[in-house]
Structures are given as structure tokens and as C-alpha cells.
Q: What sequence folds into this?
């Protein structure tokens, strides 16, 4: 039989031109939207998704509108019109939130469901990039619930605007609620991807989803309290605290998206799946890295090697985080100082001369042991450190840059106040520096370590999985806590309790 | 078209694929055989740039899998172990979606989809939801998906496993047709008869290592030895088997049959016939005993087991 070699038509997808970022972005979005369109159409084929969306868009807003009107009239009859007025925007937020909670269901279905049904692999075999797949699926999970959410909010507002209530809300408050709804949907979907990465069954993913639902419910509760009680609830500029929440949620959403994007890659998706929680194995691994002299988990042979190799290695590894924390510390100190410069916020300190006339009382005060016991100081500082680690762990390291710098802001404020009051700087230095030098160094390392541990999930080192990278950094944090932070805090507490008071009194000329 | 050099994949401490070397020229079919968990799927996933090799290289259609993953995936059609169809979609919509993913114009997708669906006898199901498809229909649709963008390389995991004999024949015919058009295939299968029919070369993978690689004849010679002939006669042999022992290697014999192994059938068989006729023995048949790929496969695996045990 004669064989022939015909022309083979190769259909190479258009690759994004690297030289033109805008064209590259357009190409990426165009590819992502192919996925989005399919998934959205698929969602709308499922009556189990469609039915709640229709109900929440077209029926629930009328119910909310009815409740708002009735409740306002009811509390008005008791002269509490304000409560009714504040309930109306609160219900707008609720009307918006209910449909976006479906985005979580869709996201878990679209990410884990596909893994479970093994329909992801044919898609992974196409030329689409990981990011295109991720964006496409994220948008698909968000679009139907957001359409329902915004539709429902429009129905609610219009029914109140043209109905009996004649509601005329502050424009920016409505903008805030719309933004909150959008950003909350984004956080939930991005969080669902992270949750999905830890499981290969929809059932397990639904169970893990409580890690998203519970914090989100707490945030909603906080937002509702703010909407009722904020002093600027009727401000035409919107509620300040809500702006802060919007910005905070945007940061969290961006960080979640980064984590999701790094997790949503072919290797991870088809790699090992954790469905069984091996707590003993996990702690053994963390402990191994706490003892390790490198990132490969090579254990230190003895305490001397641990101190001479393991700890310097980890400090070197978190050097960028130390630099960032250092900058934030300086900003905190300067901010505190600036606040002290403002007459409205300054403490009414007595002039230095008056203080010196009180020498005797001060001497007795400082040397009453129960005033500055070492255990109390240590306890307070350890609480700050643990809180920093815990919150840093669940906030991608962000809270690691918030809690310790508060101390610096307070310090800056005290320094500014004392400086403005005209005190001799030696008094200030004597009261702060002896223990402060140790305490601040330890706090800086704490802050940097929490940042490094939390942030590593957003950008794991090349060739490492998110889980492994996080475990290594957790081991590093424990290493620094045991080897540097705890001993440092012990020494600082001892100095603050015993040495600092004497130096402070000496600087006042009392010793 | 497919070249792998020392391709290796580790999952933690487990080595799934261990320094495999493969070379499949354009227009040929390689059957990759092996037990479940031998490393076939991992190899295919590395060839489609889904998994990153731990070490070694693979070039598919001229593109290196780690350097040009998108190009590799654009030039490869993959039939995955699990077909992973979207059950709520209709057949045509499903293919249209993948056509868009590969940036085919809609009209071109439709044209190709209709042609392939007709070739596989699925035209009647174009507007049916995939959830209504039978297992075999789903597999054929997944094959159509893999072929839709006209790729020069096709990696097919168990292409006919769920099909009835007629459908399996359709698929085999399609593979043969495409092979004639210089398409290159890597097929992983447990169906050894099918592999024997389709493959130009056969590779056997065990514990992540290629333990045999060659054409059917090469493997048969290497692992099963020279051809075995069977002589059947009318009546009894009456010691003829003993007489032949100086000419050929007699393996076994009965009252009216003999089996012998020969490295030179062209010389030995006429000689055997001449001697039989000289003794007045009426020969009914003289034919080779068919060696199947199954024989070769089992032999290869047994030998490797022996080596593994010895090493252990």
C-alpha cells in the first residue's frame, strides 16, 4: 500500500506577545474567558444552582423590603426611628451577601468537583496556562452569584426607592456595600481554591469550607455592628471603618488569589492529595525543620551547632522580611511621634522640675516589687509574640507587620510626648534603652518571622509545594522562638524589672 | 517525533519513572505496555508537560517539554485514562469548546467534528447530552476531542478499553489511517492483541523502567527465542522424532505430531519434509506455532522479576 506524507495542519494557539504586556493581558483574559463562558453556561444548566439564584434575586429582596418597611414603622412607633433607618442599609448588605454565599458552593464544585470527576486532566492537556485556567474558573464561580447579588440589591433598592419607604440612601454607603459584596465574593472564591487544594472530594471540601464561612460570618457581624453604631454612619463620605474593611479585604483577596494561583498548577493538581490529617507526621516534620541547619531538614548535631549554624541560617533566610519589618517599625515610631506632636493628642506631663520634686515618691514606687515584676513583663511580651505568630499565620504575614509595630508607635508617642514636655533626653534613654534594645530586636525578629511564615504561601520557592514551604517556615519560626525570642524576652524582662528602674532613677539623679 | 532521554520523575522519595529512553519516529506507533502503576500515565503526563520531569529530557513534535510546554500541548492530542467529559454538555458543544481552547475557527471545528464523529459512528449523538452517552460512546468522543485540533502526535491511554468489537475496529482503523498521514502515536494499553496489530514498536515498562523495547520480531527473538514449528502427520510417527534430533531441536512430540525449534526455517523445514516423505510419512501440516505478544510480555516480566529477586 502506498503511503504518503500529507501536509499536517498545526493549530498552535496564539501565544501572548511578551513584548506587549497589554496584548499579553488581553490574550490571557480571552483564553480565560473561554473557560468562564463554558462554566457559567454549565452552572445555568443546573437547576440546583439556578433555583436559589432566581429566588435570591427576585423574591428575597421583596421579603427584605417588606421587613425593612415593617420594622422601621414598628421601631418608629417607639420613637426609635434611627434603628429603623440603620436597618435598611444593613438589609441591603444581607440581600447582597446571601447570593454570593453560593459562589463558595460553585467554586468548590468547579475546582474540587472537576478533580473528583477527573474532568480536569483533558483541560490540563491543552495549551492554556495555569493562570488562564485559574482566572477562568474563578470568574466562573463569581459571575452567576454576583449577578444575582447585584440584581437582588437593585431590586431591593428600587422597591424601597419607589415604594412606601421612599429611601434616599447616601450614595457612597451604597457604593461601599456593593464593593464589600464584590470583594467578599472574591475572598470566598479565592479561599475556596485554597481549601480545594487540600482535598480531592467535594464532601471533604465542603467540610473544610467552614474555615471560610466562619471568618466571613464574623466579618459580616462586625460590618453590621459598624453600620448601626458608627458615628459617621450618615456621613456622605461613607463609613470610615467600612472603607478600612474594604481595603483590608482587598488585600486579603489579592493574597488569596496569589496563593490560589501558586496552588492551581498542573503539578500540584495531579500531585499528592491530603485527605487524611497526619498530625503526628506533620509535627515530626515541623520539629525536624526546627532543628535543621538548612532548608533540606539536615538536623543540627548538638546545641552548639544549632546556635552556630541553624539559627544564623534561618536569620539569613528571613533577611528580606527583617528589612521590611525594620521599615515598618520605623514608620510606626515616626507615626507615634507625629501623633505626640499634635496638641490634641498629647499627654499632660508635668514639667521636669515638678517631676524632680517627686523623687521620693518615685523611688518608693519603682522599688515596690509588685509594680514591675519580671513574670508580668515576660507574660505580656510572650502574649504579644504568640499573637503575632498566630495572626501572621492566618493573614499571610500581614498581621506580623501590624502588632509589633504598635509597640513602636506607642514608643514613638511616648518619646514625642516626653520630648515636647522638655525632659532631658537622658531620662528617656535611661528608662527605655536598657531593656528596649533587646526587646525591640526580639520583636523585630518576631515580626519578620511571622511575615516570612505567612507570606511564603503566597509565593513558595521554585520547585517547592505550598505545604512544604509553609512547614519549613513554621519550623524556622519555632527555631527562632526557642533559640532567640524566648531567651531574649527573658533577658529583657529581667533587665526591665531590675536594671532599667535603677538606671531611670539614676538619670533623674535619685540614686 | 517523540524522543525521551533519561526521563525521570520522582514523587518525594518514590521514583515513578526511572531514566527511560524512547524514540518514536514520525508516522509510527509505539505501544507502551505495563501493569497498573508501572509508570505509563506518569510518562504520558510528562510528555504533555502536565508533570515536570525530575531529570532527563523529552522532545515532543520538536518541542522540549520543560521549555515550551504550551507548544508541546498544542501539538499533542491526549486521550486520558479517565475521559472526564462534561456530562451536561451536548456532544457538539463540547467539541466546540475544545475547538475554542485550541483557537480553531468555529467553522473549522464544526467541519472537523462532523468528519470525526462520522468516522466513529457518532453523528447521531451530536445533539445528545454527554450524560446520555454509553461508556464506549464517551470514549470515542474523548478520542474525537484528542484528534480535533489535528495534532501530529497522539498519546492515547487505553483507547479501546470500553468499546465493543465494532467500535474498537473503527478506532484501530482510524489510528492506521492517521499513521499513514505521518501522525505519531504512543498508545498505552493492556490489550496486547491490539498492541500487536497497531504498534511498530513495543516498549514494556515495569517499576518505572523500560525493560524491553523493540519491534515485535525483535522482542520475540530476544525473549521467546527462535520460531517453533509443528509437524502433523497422517498415522503414527514411529520414531521419526528421534531421527530428526540430529537436524533440529525437538521440543516435544506425540504419536502424530512433533514440535521443534529452528533458527533457519528456510533450510530446516524442506529438509524435514524431504525426510518424512522419504520414510513414507504423509505430512498433513507443517506450520509455525504462533507467538503472541502475550507470550513475550509474560516472558519479559517473568525474567525481570527474576532479575529483581536476584538483585534483592
A:
Amino acid at each position: 500500500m502506498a503511503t504518503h506524507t500529507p501536509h499536517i495542519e498545526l493549530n498552535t494557539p496564539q501565544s501572548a506577545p511578551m513584548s506587549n504586556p497589554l496584548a499579553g493581558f488581553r490574550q490571557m483574559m480571552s483564553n480565560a474567558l473561554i473557560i468562564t463562558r463554558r462554566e457559567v453556561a454549565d452552572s445555568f444548566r443546573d437547576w440546583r444552582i439556578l433555583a436559589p439564584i432566581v429566588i435570591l434575586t427576585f423574591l428575597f429582596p421583596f421579603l427584605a423590603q417588606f421587613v425593612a418597611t415593617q420594622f422601621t414603622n414598628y421601631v418608629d412607633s417607639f420613637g426609635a426611628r434611627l434603628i429603623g433607618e440603620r436597618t435598611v442599609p444593613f438589609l441591603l448588605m444581607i440581600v447582597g451577601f446571601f447570593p454570593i454565599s453560593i459562589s463558595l458552593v460553585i467554586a468548590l464544585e468547579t475546582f474540587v468537583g472537576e478533580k473528583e470527576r477527573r474532568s480536569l486532566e483533558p483541560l490540563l492537556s491543552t495549551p492554556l496556562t495555569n493562570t488562564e485556567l485559574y482566572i477562568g474558573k474563578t470568574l466562573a464561580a463569581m459571575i452567576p452569584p454576583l449577578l444575582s447579588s447585584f440584581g437582588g440589591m437593585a431590586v431591593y433598592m428600587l422597591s424601597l426607592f419607589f415604594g412606601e419607604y421612599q429611601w434616599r440612601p447616601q450614595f457612597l454607603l451604597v457604593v461601599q456595600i456593593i464593593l464589600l459584596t464584590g470583594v467578599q465574593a472574591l475572598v470566598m472564591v479565592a479561599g475556596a481554591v485554597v481549601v480545594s487544594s487540600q482535598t480531592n472530594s467535594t464532601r471533604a471540601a465542603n467540610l473544610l469550607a467552614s474555615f471560610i464561612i466562619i471568618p466571613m460570618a464574623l466579618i459580616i457581624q462586625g460590618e453590621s455592628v459598624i453600620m448601626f453604631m458608627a458615628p459617621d454612619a450618615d456621613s456622605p463620605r461613607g463609613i470610615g471603618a467600612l472603607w478600612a474593611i474594604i481595603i483590608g479585604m482587598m488585600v486579603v483577596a489579592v493574597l488569596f488569589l496569589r496563593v490560589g494561583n501558586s496552588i492551581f498548577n498542573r503539578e500540584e493538581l495531579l500531585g499528592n492529595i491530603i485527605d487524611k490529617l497526619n498530625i503526628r507526621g506533620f509535627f515530626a516534620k515541623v520539629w525536624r525543620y526546627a532543628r535543621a541547619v538548612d532548608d533540606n531538614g539536615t538536623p543540627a548535631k548538638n546545641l552548639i551547632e544549632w546556635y552556630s549554624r541553624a539559627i544564623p541560617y534561618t536569620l539569613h533566610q528571613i533577611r528580606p522580611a527583617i528589612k521590611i519589618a525594620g521599615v515598618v517599625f520605623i514608620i510606626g515610631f515616626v507615626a507615634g511621634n507625629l501623633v505626640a506632636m499634635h496638641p490634641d493628642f498629647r499627654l499632660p506631663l508635668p514639667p521636669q522640675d515638678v517631676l524632680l520634686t517627686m523623687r521620693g515618691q518615685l523611688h518608693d514606687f519603682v522599688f515596690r516589687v509588685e509594680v514591675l515584676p519580671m513574670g508580668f513583663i515576660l507574660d505580656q511580651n510572650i502574649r504579644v509574640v504568640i499573637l503575632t505568630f498566630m495572626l501572621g499565620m492566618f493573614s499571610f504575614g500581614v498581621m506580623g507587620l501590624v502588632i509589633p509595630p504598635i509597640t513602636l508607635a506607642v514608643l514613638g508617642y511616648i518619646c514625642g510626648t516626653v520630648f515636647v514636655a522638655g525632659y532631658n533626653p537622658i531620662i528617656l534613654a535611661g528608662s527605655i534603652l536598657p531593656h528596649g534594645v533587646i526587646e525591640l530586636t526580639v520583636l523585630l525578629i518576631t515580626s519578620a518571622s511571622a511575615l516570612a511564615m505567612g507570606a511564603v504561601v503566597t509565593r513558595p520557592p521554585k520547585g517547592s509545594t505550598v505545604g512544604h514551604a509553609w512547614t519549613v517556615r513554621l519550623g524556622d519560626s519555632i527555631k527562632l522562638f526557642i533559640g532567640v525570642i524566648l531567651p531574649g524576652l527573658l533577658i529583657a524582662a529581667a533587665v526591665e524589672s531590675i536594671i532599667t528602674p535603677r538606671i531611670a532613677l539614676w538619670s533623674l539623679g535619685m540614686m | 517525533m517523540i524522543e525521551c532521554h533519561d526521563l525521570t520523575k520522582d514523587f518525594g522519595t518514590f521514583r515513578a519513572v526511572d531514566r527511560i529512553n524512547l524514540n518514536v519516529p514520525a508516522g509510527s506507533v509505539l505501544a507502551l505496555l505495563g501493569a497498573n502503576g508501572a509508570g505509563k500515565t506518569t510518562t504520558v503526563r510528562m510528555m504533555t508537560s502536565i508533570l515536570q520531569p525530575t531529570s532527563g529530557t523529552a522532545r515532543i513534535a520538536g518541542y522540549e517539554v520543560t521549555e515550551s510546554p504550551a507548544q508541546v500541548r498544542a501539538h499533542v492530542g491526549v486521550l486520558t485514562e479517565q475521559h472526564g467529559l462534561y456530562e451536561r454538555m451536548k456532544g457538539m458543544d463540547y467539541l466546540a469548546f475544545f475547538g475554542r481552547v485550541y483557537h480553531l475557527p468555529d467553522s473549522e471545528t464544526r467541519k472537523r467534528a462532523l468528519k470525526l464523529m462520522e468516522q466513529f459512528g457518532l453523528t447521531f449523538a451530536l445533539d445528545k447530552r454527554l450524560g446520555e452517552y454509553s461508556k464506549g460512546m464517551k470514549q470515542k468522543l474523548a478520542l474525537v476531542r484528542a484528534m480535533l485540533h489535528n495534532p501530529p502526535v497522539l498519546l492515547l491511554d487505553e483507547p479501546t478499553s470500553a468499546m465493543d468489537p465494532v467500535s474498537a475496529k473503527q478506532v484501530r482503523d482510524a489510528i492506521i489511517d492517521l499513521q499513514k498521514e505521518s501522525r505519531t502515536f504512543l498508545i498505552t494499553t493492556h490489550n496486547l492483541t491490539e498492541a500487536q496489530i497497531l504498534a511498530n514498536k513495543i516498549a514494556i515498562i515495569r517499576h518505572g523502567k523500560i525493560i524491553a523495547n523493540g519491534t515485535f520480531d525483535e522482542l520475540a527473538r530476544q525473549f521467546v527465542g527462535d520460531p517453533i514449528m509443528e509437524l502433523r502427520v497422517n498415522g503414527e510417527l514411529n520414531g521419526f522424532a528421534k531421527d530428526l534430533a540430529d537436524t533440529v531441536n525437538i521440543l516435544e512430540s506425540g504419536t502424530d505430531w512433533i514440535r521443534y525449534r529452528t533458527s533457519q526455517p528456510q533450510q530446516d523445514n524442506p529438509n524435514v519434509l524431504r525426510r518424512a516423505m522419504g520414510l513414507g510419512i504423509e505430512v498433513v501440516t507443517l506450520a509455525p506455532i504462533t507467538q503472541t505478544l502475550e507470550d513475550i510480555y509474560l516472558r519479559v516480566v517473568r525474567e525481570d522479576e527474576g532479575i529483581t529477586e536476584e538483585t534483592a
